[in-house]
Amino acid sequence: MIFDLLPSGKCRFCGQIYETWSAHYYLRRTRGHIYFRCKVKKLKENADYRTKHPEKRKSADQVYSSKHREKKRKIAKTWKSEHPEKVKAHKKQYRIRHPEKAKEQRKRYLVKHPSIIKVIDGRYRARTHGYDPDLNNNYWEYALEYFEYCCAVCHISVREKRLALCFWVPLIEGEKGADPQNVIPLCWGKDSCGQSKGAQHPHDWLEKEYGSDVDSIEKRIADYFERVRINDRS
To answer: Which has the closest alpha carbon to 141: 218, 226, 228, 234?
Structure first.
């Protein structure tokens, strides 16, 4: 820009020393005339205006938000992805300051996403039985490698769907506990094995969903549990 060639100096509006004109001033055209506006002074004027006219600024912000809803969402989404720690800290502070509102938001979320309740209940039952999937990384890595980073039932790859460590025989059945010989990687998400199976007994679920392939799937998973049992003994 040609104004960057102009020498640095002191702004007569705010008194600050600037390196380049384009960094400190912007051009304003009014009725055919062009003049410079100090960016620092303009920011101060905007802040003063917001303080003196909060209702006008609020209504103006609402109008802008309604006209640029997608733009604001995109900006907010980008900022959140770049500052996950700040987002986490802000949510924590919000829950501390507004416990009742946070509780109501959680209730509404669980109503809209009932499948999450099953996940929360499953993890709670796992911890009460002395098993925490988050802490057992060795078995999780071994299971992923054994099944080649695919779902143990449908063979879908982790590149296509997220894999979750699930209890093969549900804890509510009481046949097996929350131990490594009862957990396998299942695909998770919409139309996935993990959500389709839920708390059903594996044999009943396989007969319903896979029919003639039941025996081969059960053998493959039984072989894996036998391998885990042998590794635990050695």
So the answer is: 228
Q: Is residue 87 part of a domain?
A: no
Q: Total domain count for the chain?
A: 2
Domain boundary among 65, 84, 113: 65
Range of the domain at 37: 2-65
The three-class DSSP label of residue 169 is coil
Predicted structure pTM score? 0.45
Residue 206 lies in a domain: yes
The per-residue pLDDT for range 165-191, each reduced to its tens digit, is: 888 888 766 556 567 788 888 998 888
- 209 burial level (CB within 10 Å; 0-12, 13-18, 19+): middle
H/E stretch holding 184:
strand 183-188
Reference 225, options 170, 169, 156, 172; nearest CA is: 169
Asked if 34 and 28 count as a contact pair (C-beta separation under 8 A), the reply is yes
